[in-house]
Inverse folding.
């Protein structure tokens, strides 16, 4: 693990840096495109309402170099709180240093502390490096298939 990295909850002052990270992530994903205004609104909704979730950031010195969002909901199947892991990204020049693993392990431990019984995440179907990364941390492929409808 990278001992020069601190993982902390995101602050409102981190939103510009987080938007930069999301621009990197959404330019790589098949389904999304960067939209700074939308990302700012979404980040603010999470940061201002900690009961809905939290954003963890990886800091190298004072610079934000990675992030992960953990959103909370309820599973009636489990009869308990569960988490949805969203928006995991590390700056390209800080990858392969263990920062993603640190972020993920912190998110998993935070979910445990918040009483979550499961964490679900989505990746692009052909992003094999992400599949390998999550599987190496104990995640397994679900037989469930996601469906979406976008609402105006």
């Amino acid at each position: 693990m990278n001992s020069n990295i601190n993982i902390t909850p995101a602050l409102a002052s981190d939103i510009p840096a987080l938007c930069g990270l999301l621009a990197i992530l959404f330019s790589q994903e098949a389904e999304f495109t960067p939209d700074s205004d939308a990302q700012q609104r979404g980040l603010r909704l999470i940061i201002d309402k900690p009961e809905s979730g939290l954003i963890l950031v990886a800091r190298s010195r004072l610079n934000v170099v990675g992030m992960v969002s953990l959103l909370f909901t309820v599973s009636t199947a489990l009869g308990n709180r569960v988490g949805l892991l969203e928006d995991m990204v590390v700056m390209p020049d800080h990858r392969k240093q263990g920062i993603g693993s640190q972020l993920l392990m912190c998110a998993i431990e935070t979910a445990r502390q918040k009483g979550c019984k499961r964490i679900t995440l989505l990746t692009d179907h052909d992003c094999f490096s992400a599949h390998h990364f999550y599987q190496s941390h104990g995640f397994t492929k679900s037989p469930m298939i996601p469906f979406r409808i976008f609402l105006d």
Q: What stands out?
A: The chain has one domain: 5-136.
